[in-house]
Amino acid sequence: MDYQNVRGTQDYLPKAEMIRKKIRRTLEDTFEQYGCKPLETPILNYTSLMSSKYGGGASILEEMYTLNDRGKRDLALRYDLTIPFAKVVAMNPTIRLPFKRYEIGKVFRDGPIKMGRYREFTQCDVDVVGVDNQMAEAELMQMALSVFSQLNLPIIIQYNNRKLLQGLLESLGIQQYLMSNVILIIDKLEKIGILGVKEELIEKKINEESIEKVINLLKETVGKDINYFDQFATKNELISKGMEELKELTEYLTYLNINKQCIFNPFLARGLEIYTGTIYEMFLQDGSISSSIGSGGRYDNAISGLLGTDETYSTVGISFGLDVIYAAVELNNMINYSSQLDFYIIPFQFRKEALLVATQLRTMGFKVEIEMKIKKMNKALVRANKEGVKQVIFIGENEVANNKIKIKDMESGIEREEIFLFDNK
């Protein structure tokens, strides 16, 4: 028997899981503070749903785990929480809009493995349906800054608009069937540089004239602010609409005084075909993890696409990777582990009495653990100190005889006695 974990999966022992739970609680509390309602969707879905053109695109479909059930139905493990959410809205037409939901759950991708990125991982998503203006994007970006501020992880958010990017490429003569490939390559600009972009465009057999136009555009516009792109707005309707949305969003960010943490990047692309408007990615300011630790954007066509109608469902979402956030927290030692126990009981042979004390304390809402093996007091206290226990209760022969318990405050070292009736006859 092979006792190793499947590649791309891992166990989280109690210390790690306690930290992950703190991160998760921070996310959940913040989501609810912003009026989001909880939702849970199945891990198992029909392959046809997950492979829809409104899903993750060809690159993610290559990483999708597929299987058959006993009825020979084609099923897949979800690779994100977005399409299962779109399915929920499509199946429940009576949901009152705007609808803001959050979901935290496992997703699966048979893809590359690196720090914070595994094949089984936990996503934490918020999505808003029914808001067709940039107020939704602004609030989600503000929420992201709040989350990472609480976790002591300073971030920057890069943002762009797919309409602007696609419109610029169309104006250069990039054909529609090549658009996704070109956008995916441009999305790597910060990692591979302009020369790397050119080499990959050549590999994709983009014609030489178009490549030169793309490279010249990159050289000309990298690092420019939003106003610089006004000159392109007359070239086509997509650029005009993208600029309108970008300026509206920037006004919100400036008014909220978060515009210094939210940076316009004209070549941020987010390669997924699902996106139709604003897109954004979050990065650690110190660069200790180079990949993004969260991302999202607007995808107005997914729900109507699943329904097979022309009706537009304005939808925008944001996703946080719990595993990559944990990796960042661990790397930066931002959250110290300490036990959540209020009391740790050392019974000195008086086990029944220890259970009685623990039961009463738990009834009162305290978190209590009993030392169930016979240990010397010093060893028990060492354990209590290591785990950050707040108070230790001693129950010995003298305490039981006098209907008392001895309590030691582990921070101050002060001991006190309290009455406790062991004789319940």
Would you mind describing this structure in some detail?
The chain is an alpha+beta fold. Helices cover 40% and strands 20% of the residues. The protein has helices at 14-33, 47-50, 58-61, 82-91, 135-150, 162-171, 176-186, 189-203, 208-221, 237-255, 302-307, 322-332, 351-363, 377-386, 397-401; strands at residues 37-38, 44-46, 66-68, 74-77, 99-108, 120-129, 155-161, 262-264, 278-284, 294-298, 315-321, 343-346, 368-370, 391-394, 404-409, 415-419. Strands 1-5-6-11-10-9-7-8 form an eight-stranded mixed β-sheet. A five-stranded mixed β-sheet has the order 13-12-14-15-16, sandwiched between helices. A hairpin with a 5-residue loop joins strand 3 and strand 4 (74-77). Helix 1 crosses helix 12 (322-332), helix 7 runs antiparallel to helix 8 (189-203) and helix 8 packs antiparallel against helix 9.
Gist of the model:
The protein is of the alpha+beta class and 425 residues long. It contains 15 helices and 16 strands. An 8-stranded mixed sheet has the order 1-5-6-11-10-9-7-8. A 5-stranded mixed sheet has the order 13-12-14-15-16, sandwiched between helices. A 3-stranded antiparallel sheet has the order 2-4-3.
Biggest sheet strand order reads 1-5-6-11-10-9-7-8
The total strand number stands at 16
Q: Roughly what fraction of the amino acids lie in strands? A: 15-25%
Uncertain ranges:
none
Quick tags:
16 strands; 425 residues; elongated; eight-stranded mixed beta sheet
Write the layout of secondary structure elements.
Blueprint: H1 14-33, E1 37-38, E2 44-46, H2 47-50, H3 58-61, E3 66-68, E4 74-77, H4 82-91, E5 99-108, E6 120-129, H5 135-150, E7 155-161, H6 162-171, H7 176-186, H8 189-203, H9 208-221, H10 237-255, E8 262-264, E9 278-284, E10 294-298, H11 302-307, E11 315-321, H12 322-332, E12 343-346, H13 351-363, E13 368-370, H14 377-386, E14 391-394, H15 397-401, E15 404-409, E16 415-419
Helix pairs in contact: 1-5, 1-12, 5-10, 6-10, 7-8, 8-9
